[in-house]
Amino acid sequence: MLIDAICLSEHFMIEGHEGNLNIDGYNLVASYQRKDKKRGGTCILLRQGIEYEVLNIASDLSIPLKFECCAVLLKEVNLIRHSQRGACGSKAPGAGRGGDAGAGAVGRPRPLVVRFTRRAVKDELTAAARVRRGATSADLSQSSAPRPFYVNERLTKYNRQLYYQTREVGRRLSWRFLWTKKGRIYARQGQDTPRHWIRSADDISRVFGVAS
Predict the structure, then answer these.
(1) Is 153 exposed, middle or buried, given 0-12, 13-18 or 19+ CB atoms closer than 10 A?
(2) Secondary structure of 148-197 in the HEC alphabet?
(3) Which secondary-structure segment (H or E) carries 208?
(4) Which of 39, 114, 160, 206 is the one with CA 20 to 30 A from 70?
(5) What is this structure's pTM?
């Protein structure tokens, strides 16, 4: 996976030599370098095709040897950050396919947590993932043996535990549809039955007809 942005400090180039920094597939979009002193300096390289606007005020605020910076404004950015959570091989309530999964069974890679800047993009991704149930790592052009992967919304700790309980009861009673959408938990017994919004343990008792 290509990195979108590379930010470097202490690039050691003086003014007029910044063109010497060439990385295939990337453009040098902003930089600050000292006029007559070596060392120091900062710069930003972006993957080709990414739209941006240079924020010149950052360089204007720079003070050689004390505070040196550069900045750009990225346009149409959907992803804030991504990270992996949990230790490989652990298994906790709510782990696996439901909600904000912890690490799964032994040998399963840690979950990848992605945060978006816009809810609409997240909703579009989760909707597309529901359409492509059964997708495997082979669909991502991975060379390793195909393994299924799942895309789920990240839930609050309370909703994650509630969703785990909902799935346990729903599956035991053979309910066909148990899912989350926009942070909410839903259950439906069959194709033509009403949808229920699960907000508490009392809702589980009421909807499924079981003791809390």
Answers:
(1) buried
(2) ECCCCCCCCHHHHHHHHHHHHHHHHCCCCEEEEECCEEEEECCCCCCCEE
(3) helix 201-208
(4) 114
(5) 0.50
